[in-house]
Design goal:
With about 325 residues, this protein is α/β, with parallel strands linked by helices. It has nine helices and 15 strands. The chain has two domains: about 140 residues, Quinone Oxidoreductase, Chain A, domain 1; about 140 residues, Rossmann fold (3-Layer(aba) Sandwich), CATH 3.40.50. The radius of gyration is 20 Å and the shape is globular. The structure holds NADP nicotinamide-adenine-dinucleotide phosphate.
């Protein structure tokens, strides 16, 4: 017997006159895409990429209609895969879901089993989506820095876009791993929030928007940059000898105008971080570390829960850089 619900509420994007229209609709079973696992979705989340998709501010969606939502967590309702059975708790991030394939802003979705990972036993589906793609990516940044040899005793680590979904959790995870964290934020009222997450100091974004010189005074042993553009160029110019920078985002710009000086005179490493196509084993490893290392009070502190109807307004605020922390999406309210 099919486990497809008689009602399946979803946020659907259409394109009219090159504008993206977002509308909550009831989907029929026949509307769902092909896939070997049907998931009852407990939660999804709002990430920067989702905000670009829902508002149409960025070319994220490859075809319309589209159910956005680049991540989801829930339980298996139907499975034709030997790897999953009905009732299994699962999580999905990446693989172009919410961009090329229908995603998590629905009560049920049919997906491919190869995109899923079993939910770590230490996490609920709510916690998994409080973490979401942004949190998984944060952990990948920390893993990349640590795998490159960065140790707390080498000096402070800078985090840009620090109040964002990725930035907030990078601050918390680095602090948890014993690093001295210096946060950079454009929000004047974010100092207490970032210090509670574990930052020892908070610097205004304006300090990083000044003219970039090929080499500046060296200040940082490591950095995680979520914004790109001239801010990343500035960060590179301030790295210590042998410093390491994880580049993960483009909230300010996808361009990077810099010189070779930090690389050839200070041996700086620029480390790329991708969360979309990473292999299964690395996902499982990152989720297990997140379950161990992110305290519940941090998850409570960084998250706000919204339903599908309220999502487009939150997406607009995110595009405008007004959101602090993580937005948890509950399709069942
Ligand atoms: N590589 C990957 O696999 C991957 C995965 C997830 C996300 N990302 C990328 O990582 C970035 C952050 O994602 P997110 O979900 O954390 O987004 P977010 O919640 O919107 O956070 C971005 C933060 O960047 C800062 N910011 C916004 N506009 C800015 C501007 N014009 N100039 C400088 N800073 C600005 C703001 O922080 P402050 O106000 O505190 O400065 C903002 O909160 C995005 O570009 C996203 O696409 C990449």
């Amino acid at each position: 017997m099919s486990q497809v619900n008689s009602t399946n509420k979803a946020l659907v994007l259409e394109q009219e006159d090159k504008k993206t229209i977002a509308e909550v609709r009831q989907l029929a079973a026949s509307d769902l895409p092909e896939g070997d696992v049907l998931v009852n979705i407990d939660y999804s989340s709002l990430n920067y990429k989702d905000a670009l998709a829902v508002t149409g501010a960025g070319k994220i969606v490859h075809q319309f209609p589209m159910v956005p939502g680049i991540d989801l967590a829930g339980t298996v309702a139907e499975s034709a895969s030997p790897d999953y059975k009905v009732g299994d708790a699962v999580v999905l991030t990446g693989w172009s879901v919410g961009e090329r394939f229908w995603g998590g802003y629905a009560q049920q979705m049919r997906v491919q089993s190869k995109w899923l990972v079993p939910l770590d036993k230490g996490l609920s589906s709510k916690q998994a989506m409080t973490i979401g793609t942004a949190g998984l990516t944060s952990m990948l940044c920390v893993m990349r820095l640590q795998e490159s040899g960065l140790k707390p005793k080498q000096g402070p680590v800078l985090v840009t876009g620090a109040t964002g979904g990725v930035g907030s959790l990078v601050v918390a995870l680095l602090a948890k791993n014993g690093f001295e964290v210096v946060a950079v934020s454009g929000k004047a009222d974010s100092v207490d929030y970032l210090k509670q997450l574990g930052a020892s100091e908070v610097l205004p974004r304006s300090e990083f928007e000044e003219k970039v010189r090929p080499l500046d005074k060296s200040r940082w042993a490591g950095a995680v940059d979520t914004v790109g553009g001239d801010i990343l160029a500035k960060v590179l110019s301030q790295m210590n000898y042998d410093g390491r920078v994880a580049t993960v985002g483009l909230a300010a710009s996808f361009s990077l105008n810099t010189t070779v000086m930090p690389f050839i005179l200070r041996g700086v490493d620029l480390l790329g971080v991708d969360s979309v196509m990473i292999p299964y084993e690395r996902r499982v490893q990152a989720w297990a570390r997140l379950a161990r290392e992110l305290p519940q009070e941090i998850m409570d502190q960084v998250s706000e829960e919204v339903g599908l109807e309220a999502l487009p307004a939150y997406a607009q605020n995110m595009v405008e850089g007004k959101i602090k922390g993580r937005v948890l999406v509950n399709p069942n309210i």
